[in-house]
Amino acid sequence: TEPPKGLRANLARLYQTCVTEETFDACKTKHKYAKLLFALSYFHAVMLERRKFRTLGINIAYDFNDTDFSVSDDVLKAYLDAYENTPWDALKYLISEANYGGRVTDEIDRRVLSGYLNQYFCEDALEVPNYRLSSLDTYFVPPEGPLQSYKDYIQTLPQNDRAEAFGQHPNADISYMITDSTITLESCLSLQPKTDGGGGGGVTAEERVLDIIDDMLSHVPQPYNHEKLMKDKEDDLSPLHVTLFQEVERYNILINNMLTTLHLLKKGIKGLVVMSADLDEIFDALAANKVPGIYLKAYPSIKPLGSWTRDLMARLDQITRWIKEGYPKVYWLAGFTYPSCFLTAVLQTTARKNAIPIDTLSFEYSIVNAEEKEVHQPPKEGVYVKDMYLEGAGWDFENGNLCEPSPMELIVDMPIVHFKPTDNKKKNAKGIYSCPLYMYPVRTGSRERPSFMTFVDLKGGACDSDFWIKRGTALLLALAT
């Protein structure tokens, strides 16, 4: 059955159905158990409710249930009774990795579980009176007392939860409400008839789609001359140029596909050829201002048709300038169909240059305090990357670190970042947040094309790594608009 909505409702249900007087009194170390049981209950409720924040909350919506809670409760009782000193590491591992983590298939989601348990399962939760479970004073671990005292406390909690109760910024509420509203509006639009009425003298769907086709055809260029490109660059067959050849090949497939299908659809609308099922699908997509699925095989995107077309032109412009002017000083990583292949080529370049195995290298990241027009030379090692977006945090441009976002600041444009290949040595993780980098806002991607690419090390500023993990802070190469 679907669990109730809200932290209070979820906590009340757990204490009503899963915690009885008998189980509550079963642990010998009652002074520890009562408090940590509440912390565990809060953890369970938070993980269920966090799903409402969508990608800012968790990448995949897991169905955590009462069995997960009950097994963790049994582990908690057993380990508290077995050890005089609280075995924090063992408890956190068994609960977040083995029990709840057994359902979790996403590495970044696993970090979220660990981040919460690091906060809820600690010595302060036992020693500090009314230990706070969030930045709000409302949610805390109640003092040791009978079972009823915990039930009474739960009833004092607000019915509507603020984002801060989950370790989120208030902006997260705005973000998920915008997403929910968009889904509702799209559902309403999908109920509209596909064709316009013919009696009102308005523009028909066919006429609108013909205008869209003409506009797209006026922008889509002819395919690149792949053979000529390879011949022109034959004296410099670097890993980066091999990536360029592959990108040109993929974009040529997309361009040819678009030119062929758009011309065919134009003829089909005019009655010159029979409309196939594929052409019908493309027609419906264009009429709804969506990108036809056949075009999305080149690279994933959730942009509407107009934005996607402009984005495609910008991608092709980067490729064209690279062909004509040589290696870019600053790369637009989102402009590649397979940006991860480009980053591998960057590592290969350094590996060949220094005659070392590529698996001994990884990236080191630093912020470039300059505008693109002020960058006159590429770096000696690695590449400069522009136009990445930060979600779930703000950026302190003066100090070069993460910070609290301003109200309504849902997305932040990042400065240029230097991706520098360096030896695989243990890096100093203190004050650093390993920020996941995704291709586009759908963080899970698809089975064929995962969205996650790598972790980019960013300075965490005044907050530790767990703080930003709970915020769902991430870098995106592309946006939804």
Automatic annotation (TrEMBL):
It comes from Micromonas pusilla. Residues 181-477 form the Dynein heavy chain C-terminal domain. Residues 34-172 form the Dynein heavy chain AAA lid domain. GO terms for cellular component: dynein complex. Coiled coil: none annotated. InterPro entries: AAA_lid_11 (IPR041658), AAA_lid_11_sf (IPR042219), DHC (IPR026983), Dynein_C (IPR041228), Dynein_C_barrel (IPR043160). One of its GO terms (molecular function) is dynein intermediate chain binding. This is Dynein heavy chain. PANTHER family: DYNEIN HEAVY CHAIN 6, AXONEMAL-LIKE (PTHR22878:SF68), DYNEIN HEAVY CHAIN 6, AXONEMAL-LIKE-RELATED (PTHR22878). It comes from the Eukaryota. GO terms for biological process: microtubule-based movement. Gene3D superfamilies: 1.20.1270.280, 3.10.490.20, Region D6 of dynein motor (1.10.8.720). It holds the Pfam family AAA_lid_11.
